[in-house]
Each structure stands twice: as C-alpha cells, then as structure tokens.
Hints:
The complex is a heterotrimer of chains A (243), B (520) and C (174).
Chain A: H1 2-8, E1 23-28, E2 31-36, H2 41-47, E3 73-74, E4 93-95, H3 99-113, H4 127-135, E5 160-162, H5 172-181, E6 186-189, E7 196-199, H6 215-219, E8 225-227, E9 231-232, E10 235-236
Parallel strand pairs in A: 1-4
Antiparallel strand pairs in A: 1-2, 3-4, 5-8, 6-7, 9-10
Chain B: E1 3-8, H1 11-15, H2 18-32, E2 36-41, E3 53-57, E4 60-64, H3 72-77, E5 89-92, H4 97-100, H5 118-123, H6 128-134, H7 138-148, H8 160-169, E6 176-181, H9 190-197, H10 199-213, E7 217-222, H11 227-242, E8 258-263, H12 273-280, E9 304-308, H13 309-313, H14 315-321, H15 323-327, E10 330-331, E11 334-335, E12 337-344, E13 351-355, H16 360-367, E14 377-382, E15 389-390, H17 401-406, E16 415-420, H18 425-439, H19 445-448, H20 450-463, H21 467-484, H22 488-492, H23 494-503
Parallel strand pairs in B: 1-2, 6-7, 6-9, 7-8, 12-16
Antiparallel strand pairs in B: 1-3, 3-4, 4-5, 10-11, 12-13, 14-15, 14-16
Helix pairs in contact in B: 6-10, 6-14, 7-8, 7-10, 9-10, 9-11, 18-20, 18-23, 20-21, 21-23
Chain C: H1 21-33, H2 41-52, H3 60-67, H4 71-80, E1 92-97, H5 100-103, H6 107-118, E2 131-136, E3 148-150, E4 153-155, H7 160-173
Parallel strand pairs in C: 1-2
Antiparallel strand pairs in C: 1-3, 3-4
Helix pairs in contact in C: 1-2, 3-4
Amino acid sequence: MWSELRNLREGVDLGTPPRDGAAVSLTVDGKPVTAPAGSSVMVAAALARCPVPKLCATDTLEAFGSCRMCLVEIQGRKGFPAACTTLVEPGMVVTTQTARLQELRKGVLELYLSDFPAGDVPGGWSELHETMQQTGVTTHPYVAGENHLQAAVDASNPYFLFDPAKCIVCSRCVRACEDIQGTFALTIEGRGFQSKVVASQGECFLDSECVSCGACVQACPTHSLVEKSLFEGGEYRAQSPQA
Amino acid sequence: MTIKVCVPRDATALSLGADATARAIAAECQRLRQPVQVVRTSSRGLFWLEPFVEVETPQGRVGYGPVEAEDVPGLFAAGFLQGSAHQLAQGNVDAIPFLARQERLCFARAGLTDPLSLAEYEAHRGLRGLRNALGMSPAAVVEEVVDSGLRGRGGAGFPTGIKWRTVAGALGTPKYVVVNADEGDSGTYSDRMVMEGDPFVLLEGMAIAGYATGASYGYVYLRSEYPHAARVLNQAIATLRAADWYGASIQGSGFAFDAEVRIGAGAYICGEETALLESLEGKRGMIRYKPPLPAIKGLFGQPTVVNNVVSLASVPIILDRGGKYYADFGMGRSRGTLPIQLAGNVKRAGLVEKAFGVTLRELIEDYGGGTRSGRPVRAVQVGGPLGAYFDQSLLDLPLDYEALAAKKGMVGHGGIVVFDDTVDMAEQARYAMEFCAVESCGKCTPCRIGSTRGRELIEKIVRGENVARNHRQLLALCDVMVNASLCALGGMAPWPVLSALQYFPGDFGLPAGKEPAHVV
Amino acid sequence: MKKDAVIPRPAGRRGGPTLAAADAAKLQPILDRWAGVPGSLLPILHDVQAAFGFVPPGAVGPIAAALNRSRAEVHGVISFYHDFRQAPRGRHLLKLCQAESCQACGSRELTANVERALGCRLGETSADGAVTLEPVYCLGNCAVSPAAMLDGELLGRVTATKVHRLLQQARSAR
Lengths: 243, 520, 174
C-alpha cells in the first residue's frame, strides 16, 4: 500500500517515515482516508490531499515535534496537537484548517521570520518559502529584535556552505547526520535562543567529524545548508519549482 | 545528667551560621563543664528563627532563635539549658502557633531526629509503610495509593496511584523509579528539606514505588544547587544498604531495590520529566513529545515512574496508616496535605504543611505575619515562576488545585512568594520572559524565539514605545506560546505576564480595566 | 542508520583539540570509574570539572571515544548545561540568586552593588582574576532571601556588607 501511494504522489514529502501496518480509517477535513497503523496524522493529511504546513518534519526522518507549524484540531482532544507526533487512530476526526489554527501558525511563522534574513524572503526558494506561501505569511511584526543575522558563513567544505543566519534550528541536519548517515558530526551548541548548529566542537565543517555526505544539505528546509552549485557568479539564486 | 541540645544541619540553618552556633555551644559546654549532647537535627522549618536551637527539658523541647555564635554565652548565663527565659526564647516548641496549627504528615519528623539515624527514623514510625507494603500484593499497594487521592506534588497534580497503575501494567523489564529532585521553582524548598532532613522517608517511598510497579532501581535526579542534599542522601542510601533495607533482597523478602543519586548541571528545564530523562541518559535536556508517556517508555526506553520528592515522601504514611487516613484531609479533588513554602518578603518564612483548603490570606497574614519589610503586601506569586501573580483581591482563594486554576493560577509545588508595595510588576513580567529565555531548551519555536520577543515587547511598552500596538502584539504572542509550545515552560511563561498586565496595568503605563486577549 | 550499527567512527579530518599527557593521565581514572555505567556522561563531566576546574576542550575526544559517541554529541551536552564551563574561571566563584523570592528581598540592588564593587557584570570575572560572578536561579534558600553561594558555601539573608566582607576574607586567604 505504501509504495503504491508514493508512486502516485512522486516527489511529495509526506512528513514522517512510512509504516507497514493494518489500514486505519479516519477523516481529515471531512474526507475519509486510510493510513497504515503507526502513521502520523501528518501522513494521513497528506494522503487526503490536505497537507499540513511543516518545517521540522520530513519523511526521511522520525518526527521531532519542534516547529509547531503542523498543529491540527482533533475532535475530542483538548488543545492543538502536532500532526507529526500524533498517531492515527480509527475513527479520528481531524481538521487541518480553522481560523484558530491559522492564527497560531501565523504567530509561529512570524517568530521564525523575526530572526530570518528579510532580503531572502521574496528571493530564494526553499521549503520555508513553500510554507510561507501555504500559510500566506510573509512578514512579521517584530521590530529590531535580537537576531543571528550577522553570523559568519562557513564555506570551508568544497561542496556546500552553511549560512547560520538562515538556520531555523529545526535540527533536520543534526537528525540526518545521526539517523541517515550515522556519523553524528553535528550538534546543537548552547540552548534556547543561543542554539546554534555546529560541527563537532564548533570547528568549520572541513575540520570536523563531517564526512561530506550531503545528507544535511538535502535535509535543510531553508537553504541554510546549501550546495555551492546553486550559486552562479557569486550571487545566490535558488530554483523555484515553478520557474 | 546529660542535656540534649538540638541544632539543625539544614542548609538554610547552615547558611545563617548554624555550624558556628553548634561549635560555640560545644565550646561553652566544655568551658562550663556542662554535660551536653549536641545533636544536629533536621530543621522544623521555622526559618525566621534559624539558627533555631532546641533544648530537651522535662517539659519538652524549648526553643531559642535566631541564635548566632555570639549569643551563646549569654544564653548559658541565662540558664537556657533549663529552658529559662531569654530575649531569644520561643517557649515550648510544640506550642509555637506557626507549628501548632499545621497538619504534618510528610513532615511529621521535621526537627525531631538526626536525619541519618535509622534507629530514630524507625522509632518515629519509619519503615512501617515499607514493611506493610512487602506483606501486600503489589496491586494492593497501588490501590492504597489510588485511594489516598495523592496527586503529584511537583506541580502537575496527576493522580500518583493512576501513574503507578500504568507502570505496573506496562510491559518491559527493567522498570525504573525516577525521583524528580530538580526543585527549581523560586520560593520552593520542601524537596530540599525532605532530602536533607528526612532522607529515609523519601528512600522508603521509592522502595514502595518500586515494589508496587515492578521497578528494581531508582535514580534521584538532584539539582546541582543542592550539595548538602546530595551528601545526606548518599549517606542515607549507604545506611539503608548496610541495614539490608536496600539491596538484592530487602530484609530477606526477595524484593530487590537499590538507588543512586545523579546530579544535574544547571538547567531548570530538567525539572520537566522528559527533559530529566534525557539528562539522565547523558544527553542535552531536550523535551520529548508525549505520548509515549514515560510510564510506558521512559528511562532508556523502559517503563518508568517519575515522581516528585514530596509525592514519594508522602507514600510511607499512606502505607502505614492507610489511604483513607490520607484522603480524609483536604477538600474536593485535592486530598491530603500540601507542604506550603512561604518565601520572599514575608516576616515568618517557613514550611506550613496543611490540608488543602487553607486560604492564601491565612497563610500570608496569620502564618507569615505579613511582609518582612513591614510594608503592605502588593503581589503574591503562587506556584513558582510559571504561576500567576495575584493581587490583594485574590488572597481569599483556598489553596486547592481547581480553585486556583479557575483564576488562571496554580498550586504548583506549593511555593508562595510575597512582594511588598515596592515591587514593579512590569519588571516582574519582563523577568518572567527573561527566565523563560534563559532556561528554554530551544527545541520549539514559541518558547525559543517567543520568550526573547516577549521580553523585548515588555521593554518597549515600559519605554513607552508604540504602547497600544506592542501591548496587542504581546497578548497575541502569549496566545501563541500558551497554545503552541511543546511543554509547560513556554506554555505557562505567559501566565505571570498576563496576570501582571491584568492586575497591575499601571506599572506598564497601561490604563486600568484591560482584560487580556483570549487565551484558551 | 542507527547508532548501534557497526560503522567505524570517523576520527574527523582532524581529531579536534587534544590534551597534554599529564592531563590525559588525570582524565583516564575518571573514564575508568564510570565505564559501563548507563547514562554516565553528566557524572563524568562533573568529575572532570571537579578535577580540572573546567572541562578542557581536549577532553571531549577521549570522553567521546570512551562512550562510543561523537565529539559533536559530547560538545552539545557540555554546551547545554550552564554548570559546565570550557575555560578556567576566577579563583573564587560567587553566585547571586536572581529569582523571584530573592528579587522580593532586594537581589537586584544587591547584584548591582556587587557588580560595581567587582568591576564586572554577571557572567564575568573581575579584572584581577579573583572572582567570577555568576547568576543562579534559585538555591532553595528562599525562606531567607536574598541568597548566594560563595565557593560552594550557601549564604542567606545576604547584604552587600556581608558579601564584601566574605569576598575580602576569601581574597586574603587565597
């Protein structure tokens, strides 16, 4: 069942990894859908063609639950559970779009954008921009707040560079280095607002335990970690899928 | 005839010079050739009187305090060994009003014994609970705790018996008992007092929890800011092992239980149970999403009971006197007693263990005697840094989980911090966001970025910049933090902020009568 | 690919900072003491800091190797917890509580006073290297606020006078 569905929807990131379980029937935005037991509500929503906005989730990695963009409403449950860490259950009734959810997603995305290079917002194309388009949020109300926009770029590796100013600390790179590659070369240094993705003990990528596999670059949703080949003539230009 | 003189070894007493006092007493006794036995006991929790010295007389224990080293010769001259009058005399200790009106179940032994004497512990009903438990089925032990109505005293207030039932029924071995001794809330010290003053009651509670749930090993995750507690706990564990109350077959029962202390490293967030488990596993103290619950998948992926110190320290008396005995104290769904800690700008700061239902006003004015400064009480924060600030109008609320929650406050771990009228509530609100920012694990965006933006917004409002707009934005931000955060740090940091805005708008330069925006 | 798979750990293009032989010898008994104990990284780091006064960056590699973890992981843990420092600090460590109960009893004024006297802010060390001043968020001494801790010794009902006297005593005792 899983492979069939993936063939149907080539190139779609369902959010959390595939599971092999008995089919579970539930409803998303009024549409009946089935997903294998052990799947997340995020997967079910994607299968129902009502994809939930996401930033820290990707189907090559286990759910993390940190970005708080994928909040949904589930009948009979208090609050706003995260779709990526909530497992499907028979008869579950999920709503992915309400005014309240939009309010919360907007609030979260505004926080992200308040520490993100403004110039990049209309320019480059990444999952972050996809999410911004999906939610209709492109600006933020926070004026002159503390930020990481002056962080130095690490261009030591011949194939990719790391621009911490664009990092949203989703930890997808750290998780990819751990779970996909098994190298564990990346970590988050510090905590809270000071959280910073670093290689090994804060060395540049080239001097660290990194083996240059590129899993982190593939995982990064904001082009903070990005292939140098995307640069032409020294100017950053990424490809929008619609271009 | 040797007279017994008790000087506490509790950390607060030590911080006020209790060691010097004890040395001075010993020296004076030697000089006067008086046969006196100086015993270092736990503290009664009457901290405004520490160092509090008690003399055992035929009329009972007579107290003197606060006794500094230089007061000692004068006390001897006045005949304090006979319990005579003196400027520092507090009379018969049991008759001190602050103490006499309490209902001490968890703190039954406070001030009475040498914390590390197992013999004294047993003489004061110690180990009866564990003995009884070992003679019951584990399921029966769980039901006794369910019947007691005991709810987690760390702050979440989750029924302890139900948690134990879940762990008991969970599949997998080994199972663990983890004690949350990361008492990081300002205004709280009851966990510290238990660990330093009555370590055996905690260790006994842990063993009972292990027996009931099928766990054979316990970890006490203790914050690094409590070095005295670490020393006392380690010695107590060694004592229990030597006396065959911890080990491969406790008192030959076949039940194995042992435990160790693990020290934290300066992270308030490790008081949240999933971050605590991550820390115990040797990782960054990051929040794990729930479900799965630690009861099913906890330490090292195994079924784990995570309980607060006072919760576990309340278990032995439940197994000694029965669940119903404990449940008969209290009101509504808040059964049993709560060790309340009076702190901050209060005249008589100390431990008040009472059945649920006592009001905040009674605690602050009758027990506490009002402010230490003598100025009027202006604000009170109940339940720690994530608790709401109340003004005078709310002080008639009873200390009860549901009653406080109805006013967007919380009982939390029972700490009450009193502020007089010199407090700037805008500054307190700013601090609430700053503290959240300092202690944020950084995993989720509403807390990681929101706490910094929250602090900035409050600073702007106070500076008079775009006040109306920034106030609206602050309320919207609080809404996002409350509803979208991954854990209670981001989720509850807005409560002190919103309560300060609601009850003390003038401190922010805001007009009165503004209700906070909807926060579900 | 999970951690347990048998994949040789890359030493890294370079293996990171190293320890002098004498320091490595000081580190080894600590690693031996905790070998095989589950979740031992924090206890190891506490012991290392107690032995060295801080966690030397050169110790990260050997600690990681002993635990079959990467340098990155160990570095991430060290940098997360405020207790662990990666450079030596002043001869004396003075922690002033900044939390609510102590605020209610004048900790802000006390802190400002001590900062002026030492000529450094919270989180910094005095110019003569004698005193490192740090914030701490609750010492559990809230019944006798304001509270502080000097070289591991807990203090209560702290006043500026008391702090200055104790610092002077500590400095002259060296």
